[in-house]
User: Fold these one by one.
Assistant:
Number 1:
Amino acid sequence: MPVHMVVIGPPGAGKGTQAMMLADILGIAHVSTGELFRKNISDGSELGMQVETILSSGRLVSDELTISLVRDRLQHTSCQRGAVLDGFPRTPEQAEALDDILDKDGNRVDLVPYIRVRDETIIDRLTSRRVDVNTGNIYHVRYNPPPLGVEVEQRADDIPETVQTRIAEYYKNTAPLIEYYTSKGVLQEFDGEQTVEAVSEQLLAAVEEKVA
Ligand code: AP5
């Protein structure tokens, strides 16, 4: 039976870091809408041109575009065993659309790890984040520095003003999903202020108990 998880939390909570780890260990796909948009931007595709200014402003791409992107992505053979969704859904409309997409194949959202961090932590994490240009691996200049020889870059939206907009968008549009998934009995909260390793360990224990 395919497994579908939705990792939610504010920008910089560690969603990407933990989602990549979970997908790797479970042997399922990692679907990050932020990454899909950034890939389209670097490829210069039509979609990339449509969303570039939206991403660099920190606002959200429209539900219509985002839902259609995820619907296509979930049809890839790489998603046959399931997926860890990271950055999607981000609005109540997207959450309902995801339920419909999964329901058509007899699937559902099995677990929603919610990674909670304070606003002060977000600013520090994002302004010091670096990303491997080749693999997408995520680093932090102090907590998890990139190995020597690895070529990294800073994300265009990791500047303080844009980070503030992203935090505001999160509280306005995405935080309501905590209630949405709590009422469905699938949300589990994690303290994202702990080390990456401590969060990973607790997440894996929850996955084993709920879905493995
Ligand atoms: P997206 O790429 O999804 O960005 P985000 O949600 O703002 O989240 P981030 O990727 O910034 O953070 P993260 O929680 O993954 O943290 P990470 O693991 O990297 O979206 C970007 C944009 O795309 C949006 O603003 C929007 O415009 C658009 N978009 C995307 N999805 C959309 C949607 N569904 N609808 C509409 N628009 C959409 O970690 C951060 C840093 O902290 C790293 O340096 C990491 O090494 C470090 N770190 C992680 N965990 C720890 C820890 N426990 N201790 C210390 N350091 C840690």
Number 2:
Amino acid sequence: MTFSKAAIKSLQTAKKIAVLTGAGISAESGVPTFRDPDGLWAKFKPEELANFDAFMSNPQLVWEWYEHRREIVRSVQPNAGHLALAQLEKQSEQFTLITQNVDGLHHRAGSQNVLELHGNLMRSYCIDCRQRQDEVQLSKEHPFPLCSNCGGKVRPDIVWFGEMLPLGIFEDAENAARHCDLFLVIGTSAVVYPAAALPLYAKKSGAFVIEINAEPTEISHLVDESLLGLSGEILPLLLEASGF
Ligand code: BJW
Ligand code: ZN
């Protein structure tokens, strides 16, 4: 694959880099995306599982789904795309990795400055007293977990549709997007807001925006460079071509 001079130069000269990742970056690790033909939403409807009302009406079903996804994530490893971003961070003056993913693979790859916009699959909390309750054990007798502090229902620490993003995290992400020289958008269909607005904030503020995705997306026509292909292949090549 060949890269444009402008893309290489942007990597070589950027002092402040911000990155937005989505489910696509973890696909090569074996974590299903949401909207691909074989993705999570092909089998499970978001309205049945990814909102608070669904959880309240059937916590057992929702927990079965999350437990299944926790098992997948426990069994996989970060891929070359995650590792390339961790390497880029080490060699950058200022670097912010904003992720919509809840799988924790960026941390496991060694990334440090990570903003998790949509929560984390391995964390849970009580809907009544809000205490963290990460040690969730499901069994036939306890098909969904109850709080050890107050007995309330425990839910996954995931941002569902219609819910606010964690306090301060989106503000930090927006700040990074508005003040970077280079913005990378990787493996996201860019349809879920407010995350999908971040590349647009970066572009409006004068950053060079590069998208890496398996297929064109909602924002492809707005970015400076759209690289079509697998992030686990393109990212290492792009870093190598830029002398990292
Ligand atoms: C590869 C690859 C490879 C594959 N290499 N690429 C109308 C307009 C605007 C907004 C709204 C609206 N109606 C409602 C809203 C708001 C709503 C929203 O945006 N909805 C849209 C869908 C229309 N947003 C919200 O509700 C957010 N909160 C909010 O707005 O709060 C304010 C508010 C509060 C109260 C009232 C009103 C306002 C919260 C959003 C939370 C999203 N949560 C989810 C899932 C939770 C469930 C769970 O994880 O268990 O987060 S949704 C799901 O989508 C998940 C993801 O993080 C998110 C983004 O998906 P992503 O990562 O882009 O994945 P895919 O599958 O879509 O794309 C993968 C891409 O990778 C594809 O393009 C592939 O081609 C590519 N790919 N392999 C490179 N190897
Ligand atoms: Zn509680």
Number 3:
Amino acid sequence: MDCCIYNASGPKSGHVSDLVKVGTSRAGAILSKSATLERRTGNDLPRLKKIDVGGSEASINSEGLPNAGIDYYVGNKVLEGVVATGKPYLVSLSGMSLADNLEMLTRVAAAVANGAQIKAVELNLACPNIPGKPTVAYDFDQMRDILKQVTAHPEFAASELPLGVKLAPYFDVPHYDEACAIINAHADRISFVTSINTIGNALLVDGEAEMAMIAPKGGFGGLGGSLLKQVALANVRQLYTRLVPSIDIVGVGGVATGQDAFELILCGAAAVQTATTYWLEGAECFDRLAGELEGIMARKGYTSIKDFRGKLGVFDQSKVVKEPAAAAKPKATKGGNDAAFWQLSTASLMVAIAALLYREFQHMQGA
Ligand code: RRO
């Protein structure tokens, strides 16, 4: 990839027109919405909301896998559009069952055998939004079985397409250990891991109307955007220290600036995706993010992400950058001086009034 930043499988990745816009931006690759065997309209509306978090933006969604079906994402209409942009095109799969995933891999392999320019498959094991279907990445027995069968799929193996696995966020050390052990067991076939999907089953509440703010699943949905950033950094770091080095990590979660991308790479990501920022800002976000990341790298004298990828250090007091005194304690502004002046004046006036009243009181007593 010319640029290490591209779209996550999420909003605005389901139609060829969106994918072509990603391809004509500075994004390094184009990733489809997670496909199912049959097309799906998804969950009831409203199912995607922006959350304002004091100057940053987050999101909640319960889209429910709306997509045009696998044949669309490996078919001529999409391929002609995305290939014309010159960017690598990746297909995300999220079957409703193991059998569906295996059938979709057969169709991807058949398309590739017919010359389709698909560069990789990202198998999504972490959709939190299908009623009655728990998140696969939290069920390690199911995850083990799926990866065993997917990696043994003969036609897909013959296609030699790189295979990636999209994971849910983990929060506990034994879970990182187990997920990575399952993935490392297939290091001959799994090329990358994408981390993280949204934090599932969050709830956004409208306190005035006293109701949930999205309709499906009683209002529960996947939390995305800025509220995810530290969880994404931690997951990328934990995976980086456990996965065998041949498996790359694609970091996703809370990427709204080049600084966010830089930090994910520092934790170990070899590439970075963004969903909420792309949804809110459109494909122009990739030009901005790439420019911001380049600016940070230039300032630090880095010419490649290899110069800092994975090189997060432990805390070291001697490296703490001291803020300049002026910046640490800004001088009182003009407005601040005015405020102090008025506070002082009001206090003086009140003392004067009290003194006058006291004199008047004594005068009355004397009379
Ligand atoms: O479509 C969705 O509801 C969805 C998917 Br497939 C996913 O992987 N993650 C997410 O937050 N929403």
